[in-house]
C-alpha cells in the first residue's frame, strides 16, 4: 500500500475556485509511469504534477507532469502549484530550487512574504517558428470561429515555445475573444499537421492599465479543450511580442500582466518578465500567486 500526499492548488490567484487548478503529488518516488497516468486521469485536472527526490547531485528534485491522457514536458501553472504545495508542506523559507524537467533543469524561486508564498518560474529557452502560410492560417481561424478580419494585423500567426509550444493568434476584440466557439475536433486534427497542441488566442483590448493582454488557450489534442490560465502560453507570448517588435520596452527588460479565464469564470493573472539580449528574448520568467483548495491522502 502506497500513501500519497496530494494537494489541490489553484494557481495565478488567491481566490479559491479561480485561476488554474492543478493536483500535486508530493511524494511520487515509488510510482510507475502507468500509475501516474491513472492518477492523473482519475483526478482529472488539466495537469497533475508529481514530485520526486533528486536523482543526481545537480538538482534538488525531479518533477513530471501528466494530463488525464498523456505526459507533457513542462507546465507553468502546475509548476506554480507544485512549488507552492512543497513550500506549504515543508514550511520553507525563501529559496531557489533546481528541478529536473523533461526540458532540462530549471530554477524555481519560492518567495516567502507575510507567511505566504509567491512562485517565480524560469522557463525554458525561447523558440519562435515560421509564420504560417495563408492556407494553414485559414484552417486555424475557421476552427476557432474567427474571420480573417478579426485578426490583429501586427501579430503574425506562428508557434512560440519555452518548452511546450503554443500557436500565437492575436485578435482585435475582447468581446470576440470571449465569444469564441471552437470546433475542438478540427483543432485537434490540425495539431497533428502543425506539430503543436495548443492555440493561444489573445488581445490587447484591455480596460485595465495594469493588464496588457487577455487570452484563451485551447489544446483539445491533449485532452484540454480550454485551459483556464496558462503559464506556457503567457510566457512565450512575452518572447513573441519582443522578437516581433510588437511592443516597446526599456533597459533590456519587458514586463507585463496577462489575464486569462474570464469567459469560463476562472480568472487569473500571470506576471511575465522577458530579459533581452540584442533585442531577442534571453530569459523568460513567470510569477504567480496560489491558494490551497484542499490537502488529501490517497492510498493505492
TrEMBL record:
Question: What InterPro entries does the record point to?
Answer: Phenazine_PhzF-like
Q: What Enzyme Commission number(s) does the record list for this chain?
A: 5.1.-.-
* EC supergroup of this enzyme: isomerase
Q: Which UniProt keywords apply?
A: Isomerase
Where on the tree of life does the source sit, at the highest rank?
Bacteria
State a single Gene Ontology molecular function: isomerase activity
Can you tell me where the transmembrane regions are? none
Its GO CC terms are: cytoplasm
- Record-annotated active site: 47
KW Isomerase (keyword) present: yes
Q: Which family does it belong to?
A: Belongs to the PhzF family.
PANTHER family for this protein: BIOSYNTHESIS PROTEIN, PUTATIVE-RELATED, PHENAZINE BIOSYNTHESIS PROTEIN
Please state what the protein is called. Putative isomerase YddE
What organism is the protein native to? Flavobacterium bizetiae
